[in-house]
Amino acid sequence: MAVRATVSRFPMEEDVQESSGLPWGITVTPFASKDENGLSPVYGSNGDLLPRCENCYAYFNTYCELDQWAWNCSLCGTLNGLDSQAIARYSHPQSCAEMMSSFIDLELPMEGSDEEMMQACPVYVAAVDLSSSEEFLELTKSALQAALEALAPGSLFGLATFSHKMGLYDVQGPIPVVKNVFILPDMEGTLPIELEDVMPLLQFLAPVETCKDRITAALDTLRPTTSWERTTGAGQELDGVLMGGRGFGVAMEALIKYLGSEYGITFALARVFAFISGPPDYGAGQLDTRRYGEQYASKGEDADRALLPEQTPFYKDLASVAVQAGVCVDIFAVTNEYTDLASLKFLSIESGGALFLYSNTDDSTLPQDMYRMLSRPYAFGCILRLRTSSEFKPGHSYGHFFPDPQYENVQHIICCDSFATYAYDFDFTSATGFSRYASEQPVLQIAFQYTVIVPPEELTSPRLVSASRSKHLLKRRLRIRTLQFGTARNMNELYDNVDSEVVLSILVHKVILASLEQGVREGRMLLHDWLVILTAQYNDASKIVQFKNGGSLAAQVDVAFSQCPQLQPLPRLVFALLRNPLLRFHEEGVHPDYRIYLQCLFSALEPSSLHRAIYPVLTSYSTPDKQAYPRHSLSRAALLTSDSPIFFLDAFTNLIVFYSSTADPALPFPPPQDCLLRSTINKLKQERSITPKLIFIRGGQDDASAFENYLIEEQHVDGSGFASVMGFVSFLEDVTQSVMEFMK
């Protein structure tokens, strides 16, 4: 569980926090195996016996004062008694995880009998769009082949297809058999027959280790539905336009209901991989994509605002049904046509799944992403609870979870991998703030309760192994992290303890929220105004700008934060975020689906990855085996002033190796496999949540635009209030003018 704060010393009181201009909050990556310093939790058992505070329900931790019969809660100060069991345990502190570390992971007893606990087969279902092309299906087949290699023995796999009809494959017989049922075309329609009546679910779900060859054979039979089939089976005309036959909504609804019948019996979590090549345009859940064309042509309405909200609650409602059925949906959209991901995204992110977008089939990383996603561990049925000491409280929470309807500051996460990150910001509960006594420092505690599926080979008890054979065991665990923070006595001390990457994370969440509610223009203005206010407050706190003769500025505004290294990255990060497609305007050619994809991606990334995605890391090498300089600014000037021949750019989703046109022809191109640069690239690829594309470019010979597009510091920052600004230097001049206006 990695936890990072915007400031490593918390503001002493509300006035300091508000005057600083800084967001106050944290990011949490709960299922990360280590903390932000690379330390693992102390593991233990009997999580149900961990003492809890009678007042605030916080868990006992190493910051609590303990005497022989009682303990003081480190969060609220309440004195709690210990029962005889706890007194006996705590007389041997080295045997208790909670006495050894403030970061612990304890096993919880599972409800139900051993036999019920064994019924925990991992279930995976692929739903493949046949209203598509041969190229799309070839890519999907490759992705599913990769998935079959990644799935653990004992997993069950089902193959379904959808177009104007829905197909279920039985791969447990000698040859694969498909049974189809036609989808009704009307908007309110469901399938005319229950899927359980088409094929019993346990006939549809096949054990991967014994049926892998037949699943592969079934994949080889997949063909796109012909235009004749679609127009005959689905021939619906709407205002003279012939509709296609992609009954995605009906197929998903039927599949979720079908799987839900075995939730808690055969499986504890079923994952559905939905492969889609265009917008749902048939049956219930169909989307009207003409709004894209109308908005694109219209000058009367803000397209950036109009294309961000969903046009139907169908998929949001379906996500709730999926959660109740124990089904998590991952959507893989391979398309460059408008698919309205603004509506579809809820089915994935609110059911615990992920949303992937690939603009074409040629250089798609879908198979690698699929393998990577299924190879890493994941937790499900998770509950995340944040508690704080009494002087402050959580304000907003951000991320792909949903709040508990009953309890405050409790979030439910359906499925969580080791990369998934969430954020909170804080408010003071009173104007007095924190005590000035060192013994009463701010404390926060994050409790993460989760379930994992343990394969038979990892079970330690011989009795369990023999009883389970190929069955998997469910284990419920409780991970707790308690942190104590120092306080900053003044603003300068606060500025000296800033983590700019976490500040960026909170800002990205806020501008995404503003964009969704009020449009992209509003999101941009919010970001620009924030930087102006921060700069003004910093200049005021540092006594750099003084007023003279009733208003003229006697000293130059320090817009580069020259006296505070921790704040120095922020102007570049804000500039880069304004240049990012997330906040670029529709008329600049930003596809609305790509914007939605970035919103979903960025709001789940941990701070270091998000930093790279917004402002890539540019490194230079004198040879493939020797790094020259660890970090350059993203400008052509940086390239020209560096005499290094090789540059490596890490933009999170893309990795680019660029050889300058003046590089010695004797340097090996591309870099050999056994060099430092290659090993750096391979390490980065291994550590990513998605597969980055690797591009090699030789300056003067290859098209270098893919690399040069990232050199943003000489590029325009367009948009409201920025129309005349050219490049980063001019952007700083604009901020300076705005700061002077603000401070008058």
TrEMBL record:
Pfam families: Sec23_helical (PF04815), Sec23_trunk (PF04811), zf-Sec23_Sec24 (PF04810). Residues 51-83 form the Zinc finger Sec23/Sec24-type domain. Coiled coil: none annotated. Gene3D superfamilies: Sec23/Sec24 helical domain, von Willebrand factor, type A domain, Zn-finger domain of Sec23/24. Belongs to the SEC23/SEC24 family. SEC24 subfamily. This is Sec23/sec24 transport family protein. PANTHER family: PROTEIN TRANSPORT PROTEIN SEC24, SEC24-RELATED PROTEIN. Keywords: Protein transport, Transport. GO terms for biological process: COPII-coated vesicle cargo loading; intracellular protein transport. One of its GO terms (cellular component) is endoplasmic reticulum exit site. The keyword Transport applies. It comes from Salix udensis. One of its GO terms (molecular function) is SNARE binding. SUPFAM superfamilies: beta-sandwich domain of Sec23/24, Helical domain of Sec23/24, vWA-like, Zn-finger domain of Sec23/24. Residues 499-610 form the Sec23/Sec24 helical domain. InterPro entries: Sec23/24_helical_dom, Sec23/24_helical_dom_sf, Sec23/24_trunk_dom, SEC23_SEC24_subfamily, vWFA_dom_sf, Znf_Sec23_Sec24, Znf_Sec23_Sec24_sf. The lineage of its organism: Eukaryota, Viridiplantae, Streptophyta, Embryophyta, Tracheophyta. Residues 121-373 form the Sec23/Sec24 trunk domain.
